[in-house]
From TrEMBL:
InterPro entries assigned: Papain-like_cys_pep_sf, Peptidase_C19_UCH, Ubiquitin-like_dom, Ubiquitin-like_domsf, UBP14-like, USP, USP_CS
Name by which UniProt lists this protein: ubiquitinyl hydrolase 1
Protease listed as a keyword: yes
Entry-linked CDD domains: Ubl_USP14_like (cd16104)
One of the protein's GO biological processes: proteasome-mediated ubiquitin-dependent protein catabolic process
């Protein structure tokens, strides 16, 4: 193989072997490793002009020891970073919180986990934070009492502290205001504040915010609490003994998942919670009777709250008891079966659109499904026809 000397700028690269059985692009690749000039930028002067990538060496007449001239600009040398890579786990704790998108936590002020969990749950709703930001510092003449106003302000301020801090927040102002508005959360035993129920705290706080965060006290663009959490129920109240029946409507802010030995899944618990029995005076019978109350959802909120009812009252011990039973729940909760006929009609078209979109993602198109259904129907008819002919044939053989 001949060897050549290649001059590039002020440098000369001697003794470069040329494999004449390979195209010139191989030589250019060799020069790339020496000079950093990519093959597409290299211009090498040979007899008759520039060296082409697919030229035939035998026609170029390159001799051993010949000097070739190359023109071209090398790629810019990548500089090493001034600072090495920094991993999230190497950051200070405060910066880790910001990098991972976590908000600050809340200090436990002594059996206040019920309150902290309620605040953190509501803090995760951006529309609620927007409503609180637009809430006025002064009470307006819309029937709001001072204690409710103060609790709303304390909620707004606590949410602000959580958003502006990466370190745990001490919700002392909120706790004091909550106990003034609802003294039940100030109960003590042996001079120690008692543990309370998170659902009761959530219910009281949501009720207060539903009274204060109205269209009169916040911007019209902000959604009220009813649209965020309110559930319109329509109930059929029926007495099997007297035949009395009536329809009732009510607004609630959570569905109840009643837990018993028969409940293994969230759907079952909600179903139990929507059908209850109650005793009340019957005008027809002139005495107390048992009524069955069956409820259906007539309007859904943007955020659906479900309470796992794990506590019941033990008469023999005269105290609360907790049901320690595992109840499974889905990542996506479908409450269509719990809706009223009126709401089902409204949801039918959007549900079909979602179903079609999911089918499209999975590659299941309606045309294919219809063809498969038609084919299976034809196969079934064919099988039925064969079976009928077989029976007729057997009957004929038996009779003859």
């Amino acid at each position: 193989m001949p060897t050549v000397n290649v001059k590039w700028q002020k440098e000369v690269f001697p003794g470069i072997e040329i494999d004449t059985s390979q195209p010139p692009i191989v030589l250019k690749s060799q020069l790339y490793t020496l000079t950093g000039v990519p093959p597409e930028r290299q211009k090498i002067m040979v007899k008759g002009g520039l060296l082409k990538d697919d030229a035939d060496w035998s026609t170029l007449g390159v001799k051993d020891g010949q000097k070739l001239m190359m023109i071209g600009t090398a790629d810019e040398i990548v500089k090493a970073p001034e600072k090495g890579p920094l991993f999230v786990e190497d950051l200070p704790e405060e910066e880790q919180v910001v990098a991972l998108g976590h908000s600050a936590g809340l200090y436990n002020l002594g059996n206040t986990c019920y309150m902290n969990s309620t605040l953190q749950c509501l803090h995760s709703v951006p529309e609620l934070k927007s409503a609180l930001l637009s809430y006025s510092d002064t009470v307006k003449g819309n029937g709001i009492d001072q204690a409710s106003h103060n609790l709303t302000l304390a909620t707004r301020n606590t949410f602000g502290d959580l958003d502006q801090s990466v370190r745990p927040v001490t919700p002392l102002q909120f706790l004091q205001t909550l106990r003034k508005k609802y003294p039940q959360f100030a109960q003590q035993h042996n001079n120690v504040y008692m543990q309370q129920d998170a659902e009761e705290c959530w219910t009281q706080l949501v009720y207060t915010l539903s009274q204060t965060l109205t269209s009169d006290s916040s911007e019209s663009a902000v959604l009220p609490m009813k649209q965020l959490f309110g559930i319109d129920l329509v109930s059929r109240v029926h007495c099997a003994e007297s035949g009395e029946e009536s329809m009732e409507t009510e607004l609630v802010y959570s569905l109840k998942c009643h837990i018993s030995q028969d409940v293994n899944h969230l759907h079952e618990g909600i179903k139990h919670g929507l059908k209850t029995e109650l005793e009340k005076a019957s005008p027809t019978l002139g005495r107390t009777a048992v009524y069955t109350r069956e409820s259906r959802i007539n309007e859904l909120p943007r955020y659906l709250t479900v309470q796992f009812v794990r506590f019941f009252w033990k008469r023999e011990s005269n105290q609360k008891a907790k049901i320690l039973r595992k109840v499974d729940y889905p990542l996506e909760l479908d409450v269509y079966e719990f809706c009223s006929d009126e709401l089902k009609k409204k949801l039918k078209a959007p549900r079909q659109m979602l179903r079609d979109a999911e089918n499209a993602k999975l590659g299941l198109y309606m045309g294919k499904l219809a063809a498969q259904k038609k084919m299976s129907h034809q196969v079934a008819l064919g099988n039925r026809l064969v079976w009928t002919l077989t029976k007729l044939s057997l009957l004929y053989q038996r009779n003859n």
